[in-house]
User: Fold this.
Amino acid sequence: MKIALLSRNRNLYSSKRLIEAAEERGHETQVIDVLRVYMNITSHKPSVHYKGKELENFDAVIPRVGSSVTYYGAAVLRQFEMMGVYPVNESVAITRSRDKLRSMQLLSRRGVGLPITVYASKPDDVKDMIKMVGGAPLVVKILEGTQGIGVVLAETQKAAESVIEGFMGVKANILIQEYIKESSGADIRCFVIGGKVVAAMKRQAPEGEFRSNIHRGGSAEVIKITPEERSTAVRAAKIMGLNVAGVDLLRSNHGPVVMEVNSSPGLQGIETATGKDIAGMIIEFVEKNGQCGKTKTRGKG
Assistant:
């Protein structure tokens, strides 16, 4: 197979592992920087060009599109879809999952467990918003934040009011969520491929920190998840429309709650913690499903 890997940096761990896994199975992989791509959008022959040449004859495309380039990256992926190239994750699913508010509304509508969450633009009563999530301590998140950036734990009522009003003052889009105390600074990353949880790890925040992201110094270890956690992760990925996803869960007193569904989950943490060949599993999924024209949206949405 000829596989396009949309990645801005071929030297990133996840990119290198996907290239290795594809080559081990005899596939040809081309790494493409989405920001250097340009497109011919026509009704009779849509095309993608890169470094002066037209990109063609790809069987599948694996998008590793960073959140900072979601808009253009999704447009490039959509162009591949219009050309009939099979996407591991479709453009509409990626943009859906990247919109934190939209994704939570979709999960809520389908009955998936979530932390109590409030969203507002210019609230008349900040105190009432704080009351809605059960009071302080609570978590304030910037909608555009990633890897724990833009996430603040407000431990008192006064601190919560100050943080919320501060973010509102700079016109930031924020979510206010209940703080799941019983999770004790730990979350669970479930790696979903093709509707199955293929690996899971527990990420623990360092002492004095509540964010468990590995990029922020968190540690990871393999964990055995419950049937309910497994089902929740699979449902969350399916609702987003993602074939490959990292679903982040918290263990609360009322069952697992979804914090985020990641469309480009990193491979280093999960492969190191579990010892599993996750990159190889992704390539195997491509082998089984990567037929020309086999995409639901065909570039729509």
User: Anything to note?
Assistant: The radius of gyration is 20 Å. The domain at 2-95 is CATH 3.40.50.20 (Rossmann fold). The mean pLDDT is 89.
